[in-house]
Amino acid sequence: MNLNEIKDLMAQFDQSSLREFSYKNGTDELQFSKNGARMASEVTTQVAPATTAVAASPVVSAPSTLVESAVEEAPAETSVAAEGDVVESPLVGVAYLAAGPDKPAFVTVGDSVKKGQTLVIIEAMKVMNEIPAPKDGVVTEILVSNEEMVEFGKGLVRIK
After folding, report:
1. Higher pLDDT residue, 52 or 117?
2. For the ranges 23-27, 57-61, 79-83, the one whose mean pLDDT is highest
3. Distance between CA atoms of 158 and 111, rounded to whole angstroms?
4. How many CB atoms lie within 10 A of CB 28?
5. Nearest-CA neighbor of 155 among 1, 38, 139, 71?
6. How do residues 29-76 score in pLDDT, each as one tens digit?
7. Taking burial as the number of CB atoms within 10 A of a residue's CB, which of 86, 107, 116, 154 is the most buried?
8. Residue 57 and residue 43: Cα distance in Å, rounded?
C-alpha cells in the first residue's frame, strides 16, 4: 500500500460516520479509530520473513477536533554538529512539537526517548499523525520548528 492510498483512506475515514476502520492485506495493516482518549493506528510492513522492520510507521490519529499549538520553539542551536540518526517525516503536513498550546513539548534536546514514544505530530488532511521514535536514545537535535510545513523525507528529530 503506498502513501497516497493511505492518505486517501484517512481522508475518507475522517469524513465518514464510521467510528473504527481496520484493513489487512498481506504485509500491510491499517487501523483507524475515532473512539477513546488515545486514538492511534500503525502501518507496519514486514520486509523479510526473518526480520520485521517498520517501513512506514506513522501513528495516525483521527480526532474530532484539531490540535492547535502555540508553543514557539526554535530548532536546537548547537555549536558542534549533532550526532545520531535523523527521524524523517513519512508524509507532507504541518509539524507540531506539542499536543496543544498549553501542553509541554513532546521532546526537547537532551531528552531520553523510548522506542515508540511520540516525537512530533504531523497534521495532514485534518488528521493528526503521531511520529514515534524508531529506537531508544537521546534527542540531540530538533530539526523543525512548531507549526512548520514539512515535506516527505524532511528531517524532524535527530536521535543518538
Report:
1. 117
2. 23-27
3. 11
4. 17
5. 139
6. 777 777 654 434 444 444 444 433 444 444 444 444 444 433 444 444
7. 107
8. 5
3-state secondary structure (DSSP) of residue 113: strand
Cα angle 76, 80, 84; round to 5: 70
User: What average pLDDT score do residues 132-136 get?
Assistant: 93
Could you tell me the three cell numbers for 100? 496543544
Q: What percent of the chain has pLDDT over 70?
A: 69
Three-class secondary structure of residue 32 per DSSP:
strand
Beta bridge partners of 128: 61, 123
Residue in this structure with the C-alpha cell 542551536, named with its chain if needed: 77
Closest alpha carbon to 62 in 132, 120, 13, 29? 13
Pairing outcome for strands 137-142 and 112-113: antiparallel
Model pTM greater than 0.85?
Answer: no
Q: Which three cell numbers stand for residue 91?
A: 508524509
* DSSP of 42-73: B-BB--SSS--B-SS--EEE--SS--------
DSSP string, 69-98: -----PPPP-SS---SEEEEPSS-EEEESB
